[in-house]
Design a protein that fits this description.
two-stranded antiparallel ribbon; single chain; zinc ion binding; DnaK_N; zinc; binds zinc ion; Znf_DskA_TraR
Length: 119
Amino acid sequence: MTNISDLKNMLLEEKVRLTNELSMVGHKNPEIEGDWEPSAPDLNNPTADVNDVADSIEAFEGNSAIEVELEARLLEVDTALARIEAGTYGICRICGAKIEDARLHANPAAPTCIAHREG
Ligand SMILES: [Zn+2]
């Protein structure tokens, strides 16, 4: 028996964690609700030498990759929370079958059943 309120709590906890992690590598896009942007390094620092700038750019590229991953996961979590509100949570979006309880407990944001998971 699926306990949706447990899964909802798991999703809400994950959302808090993802939001915290995102705020370390990026910031909210003020123009698009729910969108995040990687934080850019301060390249105008007058004391930075060429190596510092190269390090900053490297760090920015690392942040961007992490930011994209976290943002994608946050979107999945938000989508799952929206489906709980809409009453369509736990239904495979490919075949419409009920998603296995074990799968939801392993990944409460799973949008598909085991047969239709994408990797
Ligand atoms: Zn399916």
